[in-house]
Amino acid sequence: MKYLHQVAYALLWIGGFNWGLVGLFNYNLVESLFGAWPMLIRLIYILVGVSAAYLLIMHKNYCEYCKGKKK
User: Fold this and answer.
1) Eight-class DSSP state of 26
2) What is the pTM of this model?
């Protein structure tokens, strides 16, 4: 389960960074890197979305602040 959390966290960072580039500079890094493979781009976007949903649901299980162990 720890591995799944780490992969989801990494994908969320990639997605957030990509959206930041799109918003600031109108530059889509995912499409620039994988533009020749539209199905791969779609798969990456799906994985980022699933990762966001997973982390949203599972966040309390991993976050020390939400568990109340840290203040």
Assistant:
1) S
2) 0.80
Expressed as residue numbers, the domain containing 38 is 2-67
pLDDT over 80 (residue 66): no
Number of structural domains in the chain: 1
| 39-57 b/e (C-beta count within 10 Å ≥ 16 → b) | eebeebeeebeebeebbee
pLDDT tens by residue, 7-57: 988 999 999 999 999 999 999 999 999 999 999 999 999 999 999 999 888
Q: How far is CA 4 from CA 9, 20, 62, in A?
A: 8, 24, 12
Q: Which residue has the tokens 């966040």?
A: 59
Q: In this structure, how many other beta carbons lie within 10 angstroms of the beta carbon of residue 29? A: 15
Spatial distance between the Cα atoms of 12 and 55, rounded to a whole number of angstroms: 9
